[in-house]
Design brief:
The chain is of the alpha/beta class. It has nine helices and six strands. 44% of the residues lie in helices and 16% in strands. A hairpin with a 7-residue loop joins strand 3 (107-118) and strand 4.
Length: 228
Amino acid sequence: MIYSSFLKFWEGQILFKKAFVVIFLVVIGNSFTYGEELKIIVGSQNSVKMSAVREVLASYPYLNQAELVSVSVPSGVSAQPGSLEETVQGAKNRAEQGYHQEAAEHRLGIGLESGLMQVPTTNDEYMDVCICAVYDGNRHHIGMSCGFRLPREVTRLIFEEKLDLNQAMTRCGLTNNPRLGAAEGSIGLLTKGRICRKEYCKQSLITALISVENEQYFNVAEALPVRN
């Protein structure tokens, strides 16, 4: 009798737990399924950048249904940023301007900017990096790609003759493609295709989304609705 009563009690507990789990999943699902209403605006019409963003977002369950828009916006910095600070600012400017070009209730602006950064403790050596800014209307989430070293003559032409990277690479005889930045990029050329420009753009976006996806570690009060 006691055993039978215990079994009925335990079965009741199991049913209650199952019902709780179902309700919990429904509530969570409803909370984070507005991805279809989300609009993501990329502050560039560069086909390589757009392809990189599209491929990255496809791997994020709550971003992969968003409408993706490409807009042409000025970076607000020099055509060839010559410092990390300027490159970050260019990415932030692109993200904000893209964000403000749309009026969707739920939207994000994404800015991707490539530029040079001086390598500390070296003899004036520079690396090229890609910075990504993801802007949610309140704050920027910043990410960075891998960096790669540029030939010294290329950096000299950039700083002394004010050429952009594509022009400097052409002047040095490293390429004859006037649209290298819309193809494999300088990184693809120098790594013999092992890393292309699209991949390093993807790296910067993925690292920018770290503070979005792991909000609990970054004390972000109004983070995006993304969960593991």
